[in-house]
Structure formats: C-alpha cells, structure tokens
UniProtKB/TrEMBL annotation:
AMP-dependent ligase C-terminal domain residues: 334-430
InterPro entries tied to this protein: Adenylate-forming_Reductase (IPR051414), AMP-bd_C_sf (IPR045851), AMP-dep_Lig_C (IPR028154), AMP-dep_synth/lig_dom (IPR000873), ANL_N_sf (IPR042099), PA_CoA_ligase (IPR011880)
Pathway as given in its UniProt record: Aromatic compound metabolism; phenylacetate degradation
Gene Ontology BP terms: phenylacetate catabolic process
Listed GO MF terms: nucleotide binding; phenylacetate-CoA ligase activity
Subunit (UniProt): Monomer.
Protein name: Phenylacetate-coenzyme A ligase
Transmembrane segments: none
Ranges for domain AMP-dependent synthetase/ligase: 87-285
Function: Catalyzes the activation of phenylacetic acid (PA) to phenylacetyl-CoA (PA-CoA).
Family of this protein: Belongs to the phenylacetyl-CoA ligase family.
Biological source species: Thermovenabulum gondwanense
Catalysed reaction equations from the record: 2-phenylacetate + ATP + CoA = phenylacetyl-CoA + AMP + diphosphate
A Pfam family hit: AMP-binding
Amino acid sequence: MYWNEKYECMPRDELKELQLSRLKNTLERAFYNVPHYRRLLQNAGFEPGDLKSLEDLKYLPFTYKKDLRENYPYGMFAVPLSEVVRIHSSSGTTGKPTVVGYTRSDINVWTELMARSLVTSGIQKNDVIQNAYGYGLFTGGLGFHYGAEKIGATIIPISGGNTKRQVMIMKDYGTTVLTCTPSYALHISEVIEEMGLKPEDLNLRIGVFGAEPWSENMRKEIEGRLKITALDIYGLSEIIGPGVAIECPYKNGLHVQEDHFLVEVIDPKTGDVLPPGEKGELVFTSLTKEALPIIRYRTGDISRLIAEPCACGRTSVKIGRIEGRTDDMLIIRGVNVFPSQIEHVLLQFGETEPHYQLVVDRVDHLDVLEVHVEVSEKMFFDDVRSLEILSKKIQNEIETTLGISVKVKLVEPKTIERSEGKAKRIIDKRKI
C-alpha cells in the first residue's frame, strides 16, 4: 500500500533528474542566503553553477553539528525569521543546542513524509496510534502527530512517561499502534506484565520505533513480548525529524525518501564515498528544505546502503539498521566497540533481560569494560553455580565477538535504570 505511488515507485532515471534539479535549487538557496555555506563553498572553489551532475556532490564540503552550534541560533537559516513558522532544537546537553527552523512549506513536506512513512509501515486510516514520543522541542512527538492526522488515523498524543497510565489507555482506548523508542517499548512490556495483563488483552498490532540504535534481537524481543510487528524509523532534526527513512513490512532495510534527501555513506576517517553494501557514516543533503537547507550533513550514524530492489515495489535506496554512532563508539584497548554489538550477543541468551549497561574504566593504565546485564526473575533465584555458568557463557560470547576481554556482572531484575526516551547504555569513568 502506498501513500504517494508517483514518488515512492518513481523510475530511478526519473528520480535522479528530479534530485539534480532540486539539488541545484538547494545549492543556490544556501549559497546566496547563508554566509556560512557561501564561505565554505568559495573556499572549496565551488559555485552553484559548477554543479553538472549528482556525481559532483562529492566535491561539496561537509556540514557538521558544530557548524550549527557555532551559528547558534539562526545563523544557518536561509530565510528571515518572519517566514519561519516553527522551531525545534536539540536538548543541548553536550553543548549549544542545534536549532532547526521550518517554513510552512517545510512543515507540509515533513507531514507528507510522515504520512508516507506510516502507510509504508502498514498503518491505516482506521488505526489508533498511541504516540509516546516526547512532544516539545524534540521532533519525535509532533512529527508523528501531523503524519497520523494527515492519513486520517486517530492519534493519542500521550507523550512519554507515566507508564501505568500508558498501559491503561492502551487497553481502554483500543490502541493498535505504539510509537516510541525501542527501549521504552520494552519497559512498557514489563509494566504490562506487572499489571497482570497479557498482549492478548490489548489490540496492538504494529510498533514504529526509532531515535536510538537497536538490534535485530531487540526487535524479536519486542515482537515476542507485545505480539506486534516492530518496525524501524530513522530521522534527525538537523535533516527534518523522523520520516527520513522507514522500514516496510519486509524488514530488509529502511526506504530513504530520496525525492527529498540525497544519502551517501562515507568512510568516517577519509571522507571518501563508499559503494552500496559497505559500512560507514551516513551523510545527508536536503533537496527541498527552505528554512534550513543542509549540505552533506555528517550524521555520525553508522550504516550501509542497500541498492537491491524491494519486494514492496518502492524504488528508493534503503539504509541498513543503524549499528552505532561514531561519537558513542567506544574504543577499548584500540578496538572499536558499539553497544549494539554487545546487545546482539546478550539477547541471544534467554536467561537475561534486554536491559544492560556498559561500564568503562581505566585500571593501571588499561581500559576495562564491564557489562552489567539483568538476569530473568526465574534465573535470579537459581543456584549460584548456574549463574556463574551463565556469566561465563556470556563473557565468552562477547569476547569472541569483540576480540577483547570483558567482565560480565549479572544484576538483579529491574535494577538498571529504565528510560522513557533514549536508554543510557554507557557509563565511561575513564579520565582521559
């Protein structure tokens, strides 16, 4: 089922012509209206008229999060503030917030893309969507909200938190779709059990989860606990918000909305563009944004391009599941470690819960990685010998995966802090 078949199934040649035309417009908008881009492009010896083909994209300079911070709050806007109808921003917990503006046209495009995304995931007009993404400056809540209204679905704008109330509403209001972070979906599944309910007592059928990396095993865990189809959605506010890419029910990659965004995968160290299939950092260029055009934005997200056709009939390129970030990648004794690698291992063991934290410290000048993971209620009351065997099995499996030694600490059920948004997976105590 398609929301806009013309663009979702557009022949590749036709799509590339559209992309080139829109890229030229974006370059002109950025060059003539944003001093930062004009300076960058002139330093690179490139002017909008030099763009002859999509292959020329690789000659354009990258945009980094620090560029948005250094031009805080409105220095990257390509329109006067009088044309901006909404502002979103990051939390700014690691520095100045990144501020994103939207013209009325930008909001209409975003709403269209979210409508497409929801329909791509199998959501229909008759669904009741419980939107547990945060509302406010974060883009998640309002992004889903307007997309759901666009397709005519019923949306419950509950935001995150107050989980028992979430479950009560889920049951009483007949919620059929849950949207939130995957870690919060797992927490909701626990609370459902604590309240003496079963998935069969609810009407849930689909979950659309994003805003943090999650593994295939976590998908299986969520689907098993909530008896739903769990699908991945991707986006970030600097590009537009959620709806940049979405999985269809075939679950073999996230379809990129290519008529509005150009996607590249680059080597994070050299900046060289990588071919489909090779893993690297995602880079996006907007094609239709008015208020905040973005050129070759380095997301920090690690993924790969999937160019093979999809059985759903959409012609867009896909990206693989986000496997980590360049900036939350841990380097332990010279080895690159992503939390998702460890999560994948942990969820292979039925005796553990999908809640874990990675604690990194430096002892005698040597990095030490300790993996804290909750055991199941049944396993916790088992004998000490069984716990020791489980701990050793997990340790061996992680060490085989990562190629470095680790310590595994099994902890009591429900002792690792739960999150209503993005889970805190890493505690780095190193003083470097």
